[in-house]
Specification:
The protein is α/β, with parallel strands linked by helices. It has helices at 8-26, 42-51, 101-112; strands spanning 2-6, 32-38, 56-66, 73-75, 90-97, 118-126, 135-140, 163-166.
Amino acid sequence: MMKLLYSADAIASRVADIAANLNKQLVGNRHVHVVVTMNGAFMFAADLTRMLSVPQILHFTGGSYFQGAIKQDIALSEQTLPTNFHLAPVIVIEDMLDSGTSLRQLRQMLGARGAGPITVVTLFKRIGSTATADHVAFTLPKELFAIGYGLDMDGRYRELPALYTFETTVMSGETGRC
């Protein structure tokens, strides 16, 4: 049985808050690059980017998981990113910050390619994670597995408009297992 974590209204409110902050931060920029890191961030990214008032160039890294449901090793598609950002601002949109491994890799890659100021936005940050983001929509206990609003379990549940967990679910670290 699924248990509601955050309603569609709560999510919409947080996305609007983050967009308002980003719009203030980015005022006066000619454009900004937006890098969406994981498939699970697609709904969050779609809602957020539509609320931004600055022109955007969108990139999807197509990151994929290895070693199960917990982000331990991430493969980022470097070829989807420009070879030179020409010091333009970059917004990185993550679905969830766990270990921060993919974010560290991406920050290095963006820096090497001439990114201007990098702003990290995440839907979730795991409680206890040492990874940092400039804007965090929600926090999540380390052992809780979330689905909906783009997040999945074996490709299912992404379409749900709110965020849920299963009442008896804890993370096991194995693909498709909770």
